[in-house]
Amino acid sequence: MSALLELDRVSKCYRNGSLRQEALREVSLELHAGELVVVWGLRHSGRSTLLRIAAGVQASDCGEVRFAGQKLTGGGALREGIAYCVRGFHGSRGQPVIEELIFSQLALGASPAQAKQRAWSALERLGAAGCAQLRPNELDSAEAIRVSIARTLVRKPSLLVVDEPTSGVELLQRTAIFALLRSLTEEGMAVLTTVGDSTGLYGADRVLALSNGQLRGHVAPEMAQVVELPLRLSG
User: Fold this and answer.
1) Residue 41 belongs to a domain
2) What's the domain count of the chain?
3) Structural domain includes residue 104
4) Is 48 among the domain residues?
5) Which of these, 191, 113, 207, lies nearest to 153 by C-alpha position?
6) Buried b / exposed e along 84-122 (16+ C-beta atoms within 10 A)
């Protein structure tokens, strides 16, 4: 089976005056449909750079990125089939979560009825329906990442790229978030994500380490029984 996402000897370097930081050094990676891959690394290890390049948001200096067999140029516009999710949820208008999600759908050309249906469906799928009437600044960290993922899922992606979904989230809630990502892969979606520590990686098919610009490892953590923790109750 051909890979959904392929990174072939990708490198990226940042320069600040005479200073040069090599974030990625000839990184190669394949990700298949239905697979959950986690990249672990310390702060400033290049994890976020790797995800932005993998999603086509940022261009690499050299190497090639292919999605569904087609080359990604890294021009900043997300290709159809890819959803890129950054940590947390920050609404642009200060409206309740459901209104923010509906507005984002209207901006993509959905009808009002479609926008409302898709927004509610995404929140329910992510276990965040109880957050619908909250404003973005009222969400805790676990709620914010669920809502943020919900906003991307309305695009019906085949690849979900999520940067640090468990940062600032309580340990038990981290387990629930990874269980949620695992459940998305069981529907055929591929998920590529990053973490800053090694806790709560239940259900990952592979855990890779990024250090000194190089990607190493091929670890399949032991599957563990995961308890879904509820968010705020609706109503």
Assistant:
1) yes
2) 1
3) no
4) yes
5) 191
6) bbbbbbebeeeebbbbbbbebbeeeebeeeebbebbbeb
